[in-house]
Amino acid sequence: MWQLDQQLRGDTITVGDLPLCRVLLNDDGNYPWLILVPRREDLVELTDLNESGRTTLMREIAQVSAALKGHTRCHKINVAALGNVVAQLHVHIIARFRTDPAWPNPVWGKVKRFPQEKAQSDLLVTAMRSALQIGALQG
Amino acid sequence: MWQLDQQLRGDTITVGDLPLCRVLLNDDGNYPWLILVPRREDLVELTDLNESGRTTLMREIAQVSAALKGHTRCHKINVAALGNVVAQLHVHIIARFRTDPAWPNPVWGKVKRFPQEKAQSDLLVTAMRSALQIGALQG
Fold first, then answer.
1. Residues near A109 by Cβ (< 8 Å), separated by ≥ 6?
2. Nearest Cα residue in chain B from A104
3. B78 min Cα distance to partner chain A (Å)
4. Do B84 and A96 touch (CB under 8 A)?
5. Contacts of B85 in chain A (CB under 8 A)
6. How far apart are CA B43 and CA B89, in angstroms?
7. Nearest in space to A110 (alpha carbons), one of B135, B82, B39
8. Is ipTM strictly over 0.90?
9. Using CA atoms, how far apart are residues A18 and A130, in angstroms rounded to an integer?
10. Do A55 and B55 touch (CB under 8 A)?
11. pLDDT per position as a tens digit, B25-81
12. 8 A C-beta contact, residue A24 and residue A32
């Protein structure tokens, strides 16, 4: 049975489920930042998914990228599957602005994370649920 | 007509062409680091490719990831499409080791790039051509 990694759970707010992935909002007020986690056990590398799973993952990356770009009107989307710290396969999808605190560098290790205002995260979660046509998880 | 971005050209050694992407070796002796560039004009975001193109890109990401991991026996593959500096759509595929100079951080901005020894880059290019069953480009 698939379970979300504890560190990912602690750092994020749940948006909902696409057919393959749990969609999470990374709670960092510096950037609008979503994370996709395929809900299958024991995945570490992209190549641990079979070809059909990878195709679905790419479809969901594109859907979430378009939803995030459409809502934020950001200048660039950054997509990354790193996993050096949290092994469970997860894909970062980050809205970047030329005015954000790390631009043009990648976001990692640049400025300290700070929790978003609840009103701000609620707004983004609601917008993403609407754009992706997914509901809040039950229970 | 598609042309490779000048900065990408300057920083890399050409491995060859898969059906969609030019495969490049990023010439940084700190990490075995490949870059895939879809050979289609005017691509910036993943979502600028249509669904069929994205599926092919994911297939090539998986092929190159497997080839790089198989050859280097690295601990983790990092995959990223950032594009904040070089706008032309390109995907980094980096072999990471627990002993490398940036581990467990992402590689960007951690240590200074240095050119590889030619013998070292030749070995990796030859191994990747063999694993991916692609030849050197002509002319």
1. B105, B106, B109
2. B84
3. 4
4. yes
5. 104
6. 5
7. B82
8. yes
9. 12
10. yes
11. 999 999 999 999 999 999 999 999 999 999 999 999 999 999 999 999 999 999 999
12. no
